[in-house]
Amino acid sequence: MVSKKTLSAAAERSNMARVWSKPIHIVSTVVFLSILFLLTVPARAATETILHSFACGTTDGCNPEAGVVFDTQGNLYGTTSNGGANNVGIVFKLTPSGDWSILHSFACTPTDGCYPEAGVVLDSKGNLYGTTSSGGAEGGGTVFEVSASGIETTLHNFTCGTDGCYPTGAIVLDSKENLYSTTEVGGANGGGTVFGLVPSTGALTTLYSFSCGTDGCFPLAGVVRDSKGNLYGTTYSGGASGFGTVFKVTPSGTETVIHSFTPNGEDGFYPEAGVILDSEDNVDGTTDRGGVVGLGSMFKVTPSGAETVIHSFKGGADGISPANAGLARDQKGNLYGATYYGGTVDLGIVFELTPSGTETVLHSFDRNGTDGYSPYAGVAVDGKGNLYGTTLNGGGSTNCGLSGCGTVFKIVP
Predict the structure, then answer these.
(1) pTM for this structure?
(2) Hey, which end of the chain has fewer CB within 10 Å, N or C?
(3) What are the b/e assignments for 350-380, b being 16+ CB within 10 Å?
């Protein structure tokens, strides 16, 4: 794949280790570690089902970069970054019975965005909110709403000025259902922003503009919110060593770096994904690179800033490169995620990490004609412990060539 939008020099820097260039920056390490690490990683019997195979070149979506969310009835919602009526992405719905529908096909016009790289979030009325990384009135991306009946409204057109540019992170809601997220670049200093938006009016507030110094630079993912209204996220670069940060932004817009990543032989670096919070406001997340052998890590950061690497991916049967895949937590405290490479045939895995630190591979993706592969995003966990997610490539559609168009999958551990 190639980048879908014309990027500024700053945006190109922010995309160095993203999906478009993964085969370049990781292939030599993969070959080396396939020889060095003939690992036996614990695996548990799990059943994977392909719920939908995307069909590029049709009105269907193509190449989902984000994961899925579900409502109280078990319907799944998500986006694809390509495909649809105009080949610039869709918002989709998939019911538990397998009924598939496209709620919106983006048009890449002055009144509509295009190329949604993040997923969607639901409010209490069943409305969906998300971002597009390009398009809109100024070409800098949009925040959109899709109603329960499928009507799409652009809530904000990014100008690539102080409001930011190229939003690629997911939306999070507060108790009043106001929206919060990030832009990859732009803002007062060009290094991206954290913003809030009131959906009823479209009023956007830039809460923080990154300076690309010790405060961080280029937030690729969205943010999460604690009970006090503080927002937490990651920047891909910047920080004390230039290799990314975990940050906190208060409701009043004060930013604090709670961890700066350093390639010191154990710490991860270049976090592409966002974070999750536990009940004690510890922050859990992933890095695309770094860790003990340089193939990515999972980390925990306490509110006081103490960081622990809770797992380093090691290649072979283990995963390689969590990419944009953040973590999800079940009711027992187990963490779940995915990696873009690794597994039995090096096409990615879905894994579980217990609170005691034991990693188990639940599924290794395989290019077998129907299975997807290369999951770029993380997974969602329902109340029964079932996992749902997407793969960037693969699937059973016959018009997608060797690489495939991607899938929506379900895994029953």
Answers:
(1) 0.90
(2) N
(3) bbbbeeeeebbbbbbbbbeeebbbbbbbbbb
